[in-house]
Amino acid sequence: MSSTSATWSRFKDTLYQNTELGLALDISRIPFPEDFFAKREADIQAAFAAMNALEKGAIANPDEQRMVGHYWLRAPQLAPTDEIREAITTTRAKIDRFAHDIRTGAKTAPNGNPFRHLLVIGIGGSALGPQFVDQALSQPDQAPMTLSFMDNTDPDGIEAALKEIDAQGKVATTLVVVISKSGGTVETRNAMLETAAYFRDHGLDYPRHFVAVTGEGSQLDKLAQDEAWLARFPMWDWVGGRTSELSAVGLLPAALRGLDIHDMLAGAAAMDAVTRRPVTRENPAALLALMWHYETNGRGEKDMVLLPYKDRLLLFSRYLQQLVMESLGKEFDTQGRVVNQGIAVYGNKGSTDQHAYVQQLREGVNNFFVTFIEVLKDRRNLLLKEPLEVEPGVTSGDYLQGFYLGTRDALSEKDRHSISLTIDELTPRSLGMLIALYERAVGLYASLVGINAYHQPGVEAGKKAATGVIALQRRLVAALREATAPAEGQSAETLAAKVEGSPELTFKVLEHLAANGRINKAPRTPWYDSRYRA
Ligand SMILES: O=P(O)(O)OC[C@H]1O[C@](O)(CO)[C@@H](O)[C@@H]1O
């Protein structure tokens, strides 16, 4: 099905458009049958009702006995208690004041110069939102604060970020924002500790450069308090990491960079007002959730491919990957039945992907549906003296749109389904709208398939196992240092038996320690028969 009079007529019949929001949702290339909405109406009404209860402060995350309040962040007047309302508004005011003071130089680095670089340390929901928003909204010359991120415990990554700051000669004027809701995430702690050590090596009083965004009373909060860090901003238990972009997690870095956080909040609030309405055909979040349900059969049978035709939205798919997959990827439904739910999300940007995986999308396994994001306004600035026509009457932006429409048709011809989301332009307001739209679509979809979107029990298993590996390493190093340890070294199997660890994990840990010069290794063939000593 490429563009024909039949597709035009379906386009007109199914189009959602909102002039005030500057947004349109085209679901005409999802071949749902005529009675689809009628059949799903009771379910979506139940989802609206659950969302309504959630917004009123119900315990929407029963496992953790928590309210779910990211919608209040942009409409504090809707928060269920005075205390929450007050917390949101005072934090926003504090962010405004702090960002203003830093940006104007009213608050300086300890050397008396204005802060000129911002390093954000966090992971998952405490990094993806700030990264996504900054890439979408900042200008390459976003003066006066440059920005970098650390979002892992990879020593190479940590060093790369520190070297970049060093290369710019900005260590003494770097402000470090450490973000962790729980305040105990090891990757974040490690990056923070390495950064603090780096500041100390430079003779700098690091607490006067460091700011914490974290839950009150968390390990990070206590540390920041004990060491008298420059500032502390709260994270609340009723905001989930993956829906925290419009809390201090996202607002503080954005404000420090000079992005318009109030427009972002206003965009999200406007989208919330529209998507709160329990009228399916007039609710773009409900339409999205229902399209996902149709495409995946309510069981994640197809993947969601995000194709924004806008370089600045490159990180949208990574941001949505966490939002969608951590929310929907669940073993059990709310009744405790095994359902193994989820929708896999991946993507990058068009038309770059035309030259990468679109080949498979058109001709390979048909196990996905695409969401195209179209931005009507081509550019924010004009660097050239005159707008350029790359061919008579044609601009680069015309080509970008041509590739979007061409790819959509090429996929439709081969029965590859797609949704198109069109926004007038990419601004703080429209970005806030996109964030709010997807947050609600995920919540509604979770209700449709009967799962809790607001917990993430699955991520704990890997964290616990990692702690076990570190404990095994400690036992191994102790065993290697024993006075009775044979001088010629010991095999992984022998050591595993001594420390009561799995031979495979023991072998992997020993190899890592040896590769980093922390123990000695006498190589043997086969590899796993090598001998290790302290
Ligand atoms: O903000 P925190 O507590 O450091 O957590 C970071 C991320 O880790 C997770 O808990 C998953 O491991 C995410 O849900 C969260 O966004």
TrEMBL record:
Keywords on record: Cytoplasm, Gluconeogenesis, Glycolysis, Isomerase
Active-site residue numbers: 326, 355, 463
Gene Ontology BP terms: gluconeogenesis; glucose 6-phosphate metabolic process; glycolytic process
One family name in Pfam for this protein: PGI
Pathway field: Carbohydrate biosynthesis; gluconeogenesis; Carbohydrate degradation; glycolysis; D-glyceraldehyde 3-phosphate and glycerone phosphate from D-glucose: step 2/4
Residue ranges the record marks as coiled coil: none
Presence of keyword Isomerase: yes
CDD domains the UniProt entry points to: SIS_PGI_1, SIS_PGI_2
Chief location of this protein within or outside the cell: cytoplasm
Tagged with keyword Zinc-finger: no
Compartment(s) of residence: Cytoplasm
Domain of life per record: Bacteria
Protein EC: 5.3.1.9
GO MF: carbohydrate derivative binding; glucose-6-phosphate isomerase activity; monosaccharide binding
Reaction(s) the record says it catalyses: alpha-D-glucose 6-phosphate = beta-D-fructose 6-phosphate
GO cellular component: cytosol
PANTHER family named in the record: GLUCOSE-6-PHOSPHATE ISOMERASE
Protein task: Catalyzes the reversible isomerization of glucose-6-phosphate to fructose-6-phosphate.
Similarity comment: family membership: Belongs to the GPI family.
Name of the featured protein: Glucose-6-phosphate isomerase
